[in-house]
Design brief:
This protein is mostly helical. Helix content is 48%, strand content 0%. α3 packs antiparallel against α4 and α4 packs across α5.
Length: 109
């Protein structure tokens, strides 16, 4: 018995929504966090990568993961408001972290 191919209608959802990316964000380069680094207990590098890239649904991060993700997003040029929203923290928390990082850099010179 011969079979016929009936094309399926195109999905109305964009590929970014289907892939879990935030469709409201401008396309930017993706950030990949090394998952070969070992010896960092309690840090889920894949969860950090998802948050940094805005892949939905955003996983919850512990405090160490939040700060690492905030550093990476700061390097990518994201503002404190957007970083805070993704990390589910207050914007002033991000601002405090950034101030602490600047102090650390000053002490290291």
């Amino acid at each position: 018995m011969p079979t016929t191919h009936t094309p399926r209608p195109h999905a109305t959802a964009s590929a970014s929504v289907m892939n879990g990316a935030d469709p409201t964000r401008e396309p930017t380069r993706r950030v990949y966090v090394s998952t070969t680094v070992t010896g960092v207990p309690g840090v889920d590098f894949l969860a950090i990568e998802r948050v940094v890239n805005g892949d939905l649904p955003l996983p919850g991060l512990n405090e160490a993961e939040q700060e690492l993700a905030a550093r990476l997003m700061t390097r990518e040029g994201l503002g404190a408001e957007e970083i805070a929203e993704r990390l589910r923290v207050e914007p002033r928390t991000v601002t405090r972290w950034r101030s602490a990082w600047k102090r650390e850099e000053g002490e290291g010179s």
